[in-house]
Amino acid sequence: MTPSTGAALRMLAATVDAKAVAEIGTGCGVSGMHLLHGMRPDGVLTTVDPEPEHQQFARQAFRACGFASNRARFIPGRALDVLPRLADAGYDLVFCDGDRLEYLDYLAESLRLLRPGGLVVFEGVFANGRTVDSGPQPTEVLRLRELLRTVRESQELMPSLLPVGDGLLCAVKR
User: Fold this and answer.
1) Can you tell me whether residue 116 is helix, strand or coil?
2) Average pLDDT of the chain to the nearest whole number
3) N-term to C-term CA, the chain
4) How far apart are CA 26 and CA 169, in angstroms?
5) What is the longest distance spanned by two Cα atoms in the chain?
6) Cα(35)–Cα(130) distance, rounded to whole angstroms?
7) What is residue 93's predicted lDDT score, i.e. its pLDDT?
């Protein structure tokens, strides 16, 4: 994650005064640290990843940054198995940085999870510039284009594409 992407995540979490954030794709915890820095001091990050060792790295990183252990809830598993168990309209922000082939499914779950005025954010939507290239593209890029089109055409969302890092697609739920 680029520093500009991290700064954008911090700012977006602060903008919605995030108390509850769901993160799809814990990774090594970099995006989670940025989100936690932008969230309210009593906010809780719920982070989902299929790799328990990723979550262990993130747990250590959060601790090293001085975040209390109750600021993050780690749920191991595939996002599409875990997300249906999370509370409807219980989240201020959903950050999606998981399997790009599943981004459209994450969008559907995010709309259920977000409160009105909440924000969904997708990382990596430029796919290293491939989403705007002409010619044949891999399935991942075709799915990203479909996500971009779906969000743009949705009556339920107010979107913006931020040109930081590899592209952040952000949309506020009306």
Assistant:
1) strand
2) 95
3) 28
4) 18
5) 49
6) 27
7) 98
Question: What is the domain partition of the chain in residue ranges?
Answer: 3-173
CATH superfamily, domain at 3-173? Vaccinia Virus protein VP39 (3.40.50.150)
The mean-pLDDT minimum among 108-112, 124-128, 145-149, 164-168 falls in: 124-128
CB 24 within 8 A of CB 56: no
Backbone angles phi, psi at 13, to 5 degrees: -65, -40
Q: What are phi and psi of 51, to 5 degrees?
A: -105, 105
Name the residue among 163, 119, 169, 114 with its Cα closest to residue 144: 169
Separation CA 73–CA 17 (nearest Å): 19
CA–CA distances in Å: residue 146 to residues 16, 76, 129, 153: 26, 28, 15, 11
**Hey, which residues does 94 pair with through a beta bridge?**
22, 120
Collapse the DSSP code of 168 into the 3-class scheme (helix H, G, I; strand E, B; otherwise coil) and give the result: strand
∠ at Cα 154 (151, 155), nearest 5°? Answer: 145
- Residue 134's DSSP bridge partners are none
